[in-house]
Amino acid sequence: MQVFEPILHVQNLTTVFDTRDGVAVAVDDVSFTLHRGETLGIVGESGCGKTVTALSIMRLIQRPGRISGGSVHYGGRDLLALSERQMRQVRGKDIAMVFQEPMTSLNPVFTIGDQLTEGLLYHDHLGWTEAYDTSIDVLNRVGIADPHDVMLAFPHQLSGGMRQRVMIAMGLVCHPKVLIADEPTTAIDVTVQAQVLSLINELKEEFGMSVLLITHDLGVVAETCDRVAIMYASHIVECAPVREIFHAPRHPYTAGLLASIPASHRPKERLSIIPGQVPRPTHYPTGCNFQFRCDHAVEHCVLHEPTLSRISDGHSVACWNPVS
């Protein structure tokens, strides 16, 4: 697939939370670029900062959290410098987000129709009838067979797979240029997962969107993404085209993740594990956050924090002693 110019540029983004134990750094100096027409995956284990990164882009961080530094450029503007009123014009219209848990993201006291048409009435200034017809069309496109009934339903009356499709429809209803999908296959069965991922890819091509896909599943990344950014303990530690990540990982953490995936052709082989635990976000060490779990760590890793640096065309890694 041909990739065009950048559409979203995140630079040195830092988001922290004030806690009783001190300042918890959820996202630390994160930088990446999303290009037009591509799907960029952000991968990492729970708590590494993936969702907080997405919420920071959307300016949806609530207290005790705060964005303490960086910039998010879209359409020639820094989203972090916009007023809340200006940002409301961006959310849903230019950049939309499919949240991780549809049951908690959908308002339980409003019908699906009320929630689907809201964006059209606010952003596109459509009349009710036109907004209703557009919502029906989008529900059809996301594979819901009885859209008129779903428009009248409340979230609790739908299955998990249908709620997920409704969330995707809500993200697409205003035809955004960027779709952020946060764990879109969480809590739904395997067959529906495949349908949802296929649907996102089809609609990306149809609407000409760019997709930022947040997941912990490397299998999902392999099937859907063009590039992938690996996050560990608030940092992006490696970013490269998907094929390079799977065939030539350079960061020890990335290599450890790939080595821990079960291989169907080696059913009796003992799985590899990454020893130790992720450091607490209020007590990150000096130097590299992965140092205590890394077989490649040297003294320089303990004393100095690595920065994301390009090692080849399109491939960057934050490591003083990368895997060869």
Brief descriptors of the model:
12 strands; 12 helices; Rossmann fold; 34% helix
Summary of the model, kept short:
The protein is an alpha/beta fold and about 325 residues long. The chain has helices at about 50-55, 85-90, 100-105, 110-125, 130-140, 145-150, 160-170, 190-205, 220-225, 240-245, 250-260, 300-305, and strands at about 5-20, 20-35, 40-45, 65-75, 75-80, 95-100, 180, 210-215, 225-230, 235-240, 310, 315.
N-to-C order of helices and strands: EEEHEEHEHHHHHEHEHEEHHHEE
Helix content: 25-40%
- Percentage beta strand: 15-25%
Question: What is the CATH domain class?
Answer: Alpha Beta
User: Widest sheet: strand order?
Assistant: 6-7-8-3-9-10-12-11
Computed Rg = 20 Å
CATH-level-2 architecture? 3-Layer(aba) Sandwich
Mean pLDDT: 91
Number of folding domains? 1
Distance from N terminus to C terminus (CA atoms, Å) equals 28 Å
Structural class: alpha/beta
Question: What do you see in this structure?
Answer:
This protein has 12 helices and 12 strands. It has an 8-stranded mixed beta sheet, sandwiched between helices. 34% of the residues lie in helices and 25% in strands.
Write the layout of secondary structure elements.
Elements: E1 6-19, E2 22-35, E3 39-43, H1 50-57, E4 65-74, E5 77-78, H2 84-90, E6 95-98, H3 102-105, H4 112-124, H5 128-141, H6 147-152, H7 160-172, E7 178-182, H8 190-207, E8 210-215, H9 218-224, E9 227-232, E10 235-241, H10 242-247, H11 252-259, H12 299-303, E11 309-312, E12 315-317
Parallel strand pairs: 3-8, 3-9, 6-7, 7-8
Antiparallel strand pairs: 1-2, 1-4, 4-5, 9-10, 10-12, 11-12
